[in-house]
Design brief:
- This protein is α/β, with parallel strands linked by helices.
- A hairpin with a 5-residue loop joins β3 and β4.
- The strands form two sheets. It has a five-stranded parallel β-sheet, with helices on both faces. Strands 3-4-5 form a three-stranded antiparallel β-sheet, with helices on one face.
- It has ten helices and eight strands.
- α1 packs across α10 (205-220).
- Helix content is 49%, strand content 14%.
- The two termini are 18 Å apart.
- It has helices at 17-28, 35-48, 56-60, 90-93, 96-99, 103-118, 129-133, 147-161, 167-183, 205-220, and strands at residues 6-10, 31-34, 68-70, 76-78, 81-82, 122-126, 139-144, 196-199.
- The structure holds cytidine-5'-diphosphate.
- Cytidine-5'-diphosphate (CDP) binds next to α2, α5 and α9.
């Protein structure tokens, strides 16, 4: 049986994980899986139904009726509604960390994430991939940058997407999300003991991709 490879990229909000994971996956011919997009999609579903994302019981009530699907083009669907653009809007970003702290929602999404990594080689990015979702991943990277660097990166990314937000509000939102993500009880954001720390403050996208590919070569032999 062919052995599938898993590469886990974790780290705080807007550290550039998805940009790097996408490029590395393309280079290796692996499937890129954006687990944050799944939590964002669930958050969109909660808000769309008029439910309160800060209420665990209300939010969890739609687990059975909510299907989230990622396409090969990285488009995101909730019950056949294309939410690819909507899930990047501030009203979703501002609420996603509450949704991601509810264990029943995490269990449902993690099951789907593990299933996707079972039948293909993946580069998966998120918060708990190396610690919880794929603890046996052949390579684990923990990608960080200062909150100032990350806010600037997200500001530029949002501007390109036509999402209007101020630099200050982005920095506040990132810091708040990091706090909630690292203090939740179940599968919090933290570096796995066997993950390699990559400080990307002074690195270009090309340099980070290069560094990850070098690690893939050393650790996985590809
Ligand atoms: O792109 P950005 O770094 O802003 O965030 P994301 O990767 O889209 O993730 C959005 C949110 O989903 C995070 O702030 C976490 O609250 C949650 N998340 C999580 O809890 N576990 C994951 N594996 C991925 C995301």
């Amino acid at each position: 049986m062919k052995k599938h490879i898993a590469i886990a990229i974790d780290g705080p909000a807007a550290a550039g994980k998805s940009t790097i994971a996408k490029l590395v996956a393309k280079k290796l011919g692996f499937t890129y899986i954006d687990t944050g997009a799944m939590y964002r999609a669930f958050t969109w579903a909660v808000l769309e139904k008029g439910l309160n994302p800060q209420n665990a019981e209300e939010s969890c009530s739609i687990i059975d009726s909510t299907t989230i699907r990622l396409t090969n083009n990285n488009d995101v669907f909730v019950n056949d509604v294309d939410v690819t653009k909507k899930i990047r809007e501030p009203f979703v970003s501002g609420n996603v960390s509450y949704i991601a702290s509810y264990k029943p929602i995490r269990l449902a999404l993690v099951e789907q994430q593990r299933a996707m990594a079972k039948y293909q080689s993946v580069v998966m990015d998120g918060r708990d991939i190396g610690t919880y979702v794929l603890p046996n991943a052949q390579l684990k990277v923990f990608q960080v940058a200062s909150v100032e660097t990350r806010a600037l990166r997200r500001y530029k990314e949002n501007a390109e997407k036509g999402i209007d937000t101020s630099l200050t509000s982005i920095a506040e939102e990132l810091a708040k999300r990091d706090y909630i993500d690292s203090h939740r009880d179940f599968a919090p954001l933290r570096q796995a003991s066997d993950a390699i720390l990559l400080d990307t403050n002074e690195m270009t996208i090309e340099e980070v991709v290069e560094a990850v590919l070098k690690l893939v070569h050393e650790k996985v032999g590809l």
